[in-house]
Design a protein that fits this description.
Pfam families: TetR_C_15 (PF17918), TetR_N (PF00440). The protein is mostly helical. The chain is built from nine helices and three strands, in the order H-H-H-H-H-H-H-H-H-E-E-E. The two termini are about 45 Å apart.
Length: about 250
């Protein structure tokens, strides 16, 4: 665990033991913020959760806000790495449904950690607390995804790609925020619906017209299919994930 902004701390831990103590404080802070909320949380609760003396906490952090900013810096660093890897891994050989499924799964796993989860949720509660995340960062993401959509479909106009990217970004954030507040079962169900919605929305725009015919399972929305004979003159498919069969149709 690293903190890329040294001014967020009273002093940087240099010895391994001090680094481990800071890590425990930050992990404990995320858990306390998740349990009682940022406003109600106290540095004494955080120190108790981290099993460290309050004086040790104050050696590194002057107050609760400094701890939160350290968590924000960690989240910024991690999410930047994830975004870079996702963009690098996406190519024309991977179908859009596969990319969407992979992306949603990656973030679902990432937000299982209390540090990014509490920072993400807090942004929608009190964005004024943040030093690194702001609307400028959101606009940068939108531009990145707009350029990414144009790679999928070179015929897509810049203005349209930016509109698609903003719609996806805002909608995804709203639905992810709701999912993170649910129990595990409901959360997973919402992730599945999020994947289906993104696929249905983006397919007509992000693939050139000559390759618009992209088959996905109507039951589980998987793109892992195999041909399974014909019926009534139509191609029949078998879904490798849910095992159900269906007849060929154009997804648009």
């Amino acid at each position: 665990m690293t903190i890329s902004k040294p001014d967020l701390m009273r002093r940087q831990p240099k010895q391994k033991r001090s680094q481990q103590r800071v890590e425990k404080i930050l992990q404990a802070a995320a858990e306390v913020f998740a349990e009682v909320g940022y406003e109600a949380a106290t540095t004494h609760q955080i120190a108790a959760k981290a099993e460290t003396a309050i004086g040790s906490l104050y050696q590194f952090f002057p107050d609760k806000l400094a701890i939160f900013h350290a968590l924000e810096a960690i989240h910024m660093e991690r999410v930047t790495v994830i975004l870079t890897k996702l963009m690098q891994s996406a190519d024309q050989h991977q179908s859009l449904p596969e990319f969407i499924e992979h992306t949603v799964d990656i973030y679902a796993q990432y937000f299982a950690d209390p540090i990014p989860r509490v920072v993400y949720i807090q942004y929608f509660i009190a964005p004024e607390l943040f030093k690194l995340f702001d609307e400028t960062f959101n606009q940068q993401l939108i531009q990145q995804f707009a350029a990414f959509f144009r790679q999928w479909n070179p015929d897509l106009a810049v203005e349209k790609s930016e509109l698609l990217a903003e719609t996806v970004h805002r909608t995804y954030n709203a639905l992810l925020l709701n999912a993170l507040k649910q129990d595990e079962s409901k959360r997973q169900a919402l992730y599945a619906e999020l994947k289906a919605m993104l696929v249905s929305y983006l397919i007509p725009y992000t693939l050139p017209q000559q390759v618009m015919k992209v088959m996905i399972c109507p039951h589980c929305h998987s793109s892992r299919l195999s041909k399974n004979g014909h019926r009534h003159g139509k191609q029949r498919y078998l879904c490798k994930d849910c095992g159900k069969q269906f007849l060929e149709r154009l997804n648009s």
